[in-house]
Amino acid sequence: xxxxxFIKTKEDVKFLILYSMCYLPDPATFxxxxxxxxxxxxxxxxxxxxxxxxxxVATGHITVxxxxxxxxxxxxxxxxxxxxxxxxxxxxTVREAAQRSALRVVRQAHRDAVISTHSEAVQENDYLVRMGxxxxxxxxxxxxxxxxxxxxxxxxxxxxxxxxxxLLHAMTRDYETKE
Length: 179
Fold this sequence. Notes:
179 residues; alpha+beta; Arc Repressor Mutant, subunit A; DUF4364 family protein; DUF4364
């Protein structure tokens, strides 16, 4: 199958990884980096990315952020130097896409950080579900079972802003009826 995109070689994939890492404020997992980079260009496969990523780690261009956890990575000084020397090798459109993709991931991480959900069994057939957006609003609801509590948490995490807007509209609406 033919792949279309600007990224054609393993070296290009490596530069894309290093370039993208510069726009992430925190260390990132392999999966996050894969998400950021594959959103930018269709010219490479998962296998191309994995091979390039592993080589960058092996050569010290990317380091493990927390050796104890061994799950997040960051660009090293050696990686920054290599990127500075070859940054313009990436096409402008790919660099722009990498910046947008990194921003998309950062926004999602910030959103996820301020949304909280928690459920606990109060008694048999009664679960208390706490949901909220930090410093905006909080909501408590009772659920009949663990599955329903889990569904409430999942739905709130996916649609917190919409739920907030719906509640705000309902609470500020004029309910006076004309007689």
